[in-house]
Design goal:
This protein is mainly α. The chain folds into two domains: 71 residues; 30 residues. The protein contains two helices and no strands. The longest helix has 70 residues. The radius of gyration is 44 Å and the shape is rod-shaped. It starts with a helix and ends in a 13-residue tail after the last helix. Its main location: membrane. It is found in: Membrane. It is a multi-pass membrane protein.
Length: 115
């Protein structure tokens, strides 16, 4: 019985120490929360401005990097340019030939195949 009373007293002492530690931790947390709250009230526009400018700079850098990577592919642009240059004369030639093939001469009865 004496050992159980000592155990209970030790447990109560540990519990009171834990409660004291919890009070200190909660007071520290409340102080930190009040500091954050006052910081948000006073500097919210500056914080938002900094975050947005950082995001805009990152986005701008990504777009610039992608554009520069696209300009490095000169072979792609060279081939697209030459295909356009060759496509236009081929289209003109095709239209002229299409008009020629539509014209048909009447059939002469004198045609003989000597096969």
């Amino acid at each position: 019985m004496v050992t159980s009373a000592g155990f209970v007293n030790g447990t109560i002492t540990q519990l009171s120490d834990s409660v004291e530690t919890l009070k200190n931790a909660s007071a520290t947390a409340l102080d930190a929360i009040s500091q954050v709250e006052s910081s948000i009230k006073n500097n919210a526009s500056n914080i938002v401005r900094q975050v947005l400018s950082s995001y805009a700079k990152t986005l701008s850098d990504d777009i610039t990097d992608d554009a520069n990577a696209g300009l490095d592919e000169n072979g792609l642009w060279f081939s697209l340019g030459w295909s356009l240059i060759m496509l236009i004369p081929c289209m003109i030639c095709g239209l002229v030939l299409a008009n020629l093939y539509r014209r048909r001469s009447p059939y002469d009865g004198d045609y003989k195949d000597d096969l």
